[in-house]
Amino acid sequence: MAETFVIAQGGGPTAVINQTVVGATLEARRRFPGSTVLGALHGVRGVRDGRFVTLSDLEEDELRAVAATPSAALGSTRDKPDAAYCEAILKGLQQAGADAFIYIGGNDTAGTQGILSEAAGGRIACVHAPKTIDNDLVENDHTPGFISAAEFVAGAFLSVDLDFRALPGIYVGIVMGRHAGFLTASAAAWSLDEDSGPHLVYAPERAFERARFIEDVRSTLGRHGRCIVAMSEGVAAADGRSLVETLVPPELQERDPHGNIRLSGTDLGQAIERILAEDLTGTRARVDTFGYLPRGNVATINETDAREAYAAGAFAVEAAEKGGGSVALQFDGERTVCRHVPLEAVAGKTRHMPADFLYADENRVSGACLDYLRRLIPRKYAVAKPFA
How far is 25 from 5, CA to CA, in rounded Å? Predict the structure, then answer.
């Protein structure tokens, strides 16, 4: 079996992605004494360029310190390899003497592993280990990184709701999530009661209409005296185009190497501010763009999330023994377990929130959604409802 493992990180960092690196490193060392574990710097770019660190040379306490640190310790990349790039990656793996390549990331990462696996023809075991705060990998109940980010969002919205009970107005928090609204929906996980915010949740799974948005906000103000809104940065109009594409001038739009329009800036927030100012004149309103803050916050690294991310890395070594594939976190009714699934089951696919996670006629999360979220992130803090 494999004696040289190469590990790389792809896509956006998370609070626990380094747990997966260390889980794989220590498991490889446990199963195969004397094995070499190389960490590629900045994802597949490092593999292509032969830039590695020897993780297996580090003492366990050093590795454990890395595991407990947020962000991507090896550096990441959003490069989208074409056929020629994949050939260069494969050459880099061969030059490194790799028997197995573990690539930690989302569905684009799984897609790259699928291409490499086919090109390698069984000579190198290509394994995809899951990572994404968007929680949008099929075959997974939830993904490493999501729980910690969701806890940040849940705590932020509980705090904002208390703030706006004291000084009423409109609050819109824009949360990361390109195609799936799980992270945005987590804003409701720690709500205290039916009067609590977020009162409105706008996710990519449902088309956004300006007139309906203003109607919803006005109605909520009348009912609660304030309106707390959680909005995914990936919300789209009825034609399927993101609001950033419809509201931001084309010359100011940016795209990543995968062709995805940049959503993580403040453009959407500024556009929502203008809509509120124009359509609800004179109402106190605040729009915040959470941006990268939830995804790697050292203060909200969830213990369960860290443990599961580590387990996913360790299980990736087992998957390498089976010739490759993707690691999936699945819920067996009592606990989360790691399972081995084919790369093609995950690559290039997007998991959306189930239809019953949002009420059919309202932009609010349902009881089914709250049950799911509260299983993953039960509320940590006991807070009192304000008198007013």
Answer: 8
Burial call 123-159: b when 16+ CB within 10 Å, e when fewer: ebbbbbbbbbbbbbbbbbbbbbbbbbbbbbbbbbbbe
Q: Which residues are catalytic?
A: 134
> What is the enclosing helix (H) or strand (E) of 14?
none
Residue-wise pLDDT tens digits, 277-332: 999 999 999 999 999 999 999 999 999 999 999 999 999 999 999 999 999 999 99
Contact at 8 Å (CB) between 378 and 191? no
Q: What is the DSSP letter of 250?
A: G
Reduced to 3 states, what is the DSSP secondary structure of residue 288? strand
As a whole number of angstroms, the distance between CA 240 and CA 235 comes to 9
Q: With a cut of 80, say whether residue 242 has pLDDT above it.
A: no
The whole-angstrom separation of Cα 234 and Cα 228 is 18
- Using DSSP's 3-state secondary structure scheme, residue 103 falls into strand
pTM of this prediction? 0.94
Residue 336 three-state SS: strand
Q: How far apart are CA 346 and CA 344, in angstroms?
A: 5
DSSP string, 180-221: --HHHHGGGTT--STTPSP-EEE-TTS---HHHHHHHHHHHH
Distance CA 347, CA 128 (A): 9
The secondary structure element, H or E, covering residue 228 is strand 227-232
The predicted-structure confidence for 39-93, as pLDDT tens digits, reads as follows 999 999 999 999 999 999 999 999 999 999 999 999 999 888 888 999 999 999 9
Chain mean pLDDT for the chain: 93
227-232/170-175 β-pairing: parallel
Give yes or no for residue 96 having a pLDDT over 90: yes
User: Chain centroid to CA 75: how far?
Assistant: 17
Alpha carbon distance 303, 141 (integer Å): 17
- H helices within the chain, ranges in order? 17-31, 43-49, 60-67, 83-95, 107-120, 146-166, 182-185, 210-224, 243-247, 267-279, 303-321, 367-376
Give the single-character DSSP code of 71: S
pLDDT of residue 186: 98
